[in-house]
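Here's what a typical entry looks like (SET domain-containing protein):
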Amino acid sequence: MSGATIVTSVLHGLIVSAGLVSCGMIGYSLGLTAVVADISSLASDHRPPRQRESKMPIARHSGTMRWSKTPDNWERMTFGDLRDYYECRAHARDQTKTLPTLEDWMFLKRQYRELVDARPVILNSPVMPTEGYSFGADDAVAPPPYYADRSEGKGRGLFASRLIRKGELVHDGPRSNVMFPDAMAFRRLVVSLPRKTACDITEWAWTQRLPTGGRMNVFVDLNIAALMNSSDEPSIAPRNSADTRMYAMRDIKEGEEIVYDYSVYSTNWSAVGLG
Ligand SMILES: C[S@@+](CC[C@H](N)C(=O)[O-])C[C@H]1O[C@@H](n2cnc3c(N)ncnc32)[C@H](O)[C@@H]1O
């Protein structure tokens, strides 16, 4: 399916992808089964999270048979166990990873809605084609000032789509990220995914106390914001460690990679029951 077809489909309120497909021109395979996403119904859906009657997550694995079934002891797996099971160190080193498509983000949001929580309004916040969330003022439907591309030696990364001035809001975390209520919810989502996507989620997730002094929870962005890389010379930063809005620390030229220092959030998997 071409990018244009994907966008057209979404604009008409419907995406249907069949079987174990390679999504888009760049072939980022997520093993979508029938993903039917009606944007208008997403926007009006505020169902409470469903009680899970079965312990078995909805598995939509694809690719190598080795990862084709849900791991037996997934309910007890630590963050490190999940990374080991899916051989995620090799995935992290892979410099041939392609950019997720809009379909890929829709698939992830659908899995999150089905398996974790259907309530976050940001799940209903598509900005075409893959920017993923509505940035800025409450009624805005606009992409953030960055786009995703390959980043030399770092997989994928984010780059300024225009000149960004010092002090500007660059990433609007509260309008982008979703939380996992507990360790089991995180495990449930990870083991429902194809291997590469499972690894992506473990690389994109972090833990944080929000608000300050609150409980430590796991967070992840289910849009291109997830692709932001780290640097000890960051171009953006939050005002404090309990915020996920990030501001330009200096002028950032168009096309320059946008990076923050991961150490501003002290991720602790034990504190969320995944240690
Ligand atoms: C939040 S993800 C960022 C998106 C990631 N580059 C991707 O393609 O999915 C974090 C991962 O990106 C990579 N990464 C981030 N900053 C990096 C850096 N400065 N140098 C090399 N790899 C980096 C590491 O693999 C890390 O686990």
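The chain has a mean pLDDT of 79.

More examples are in the samples folder.
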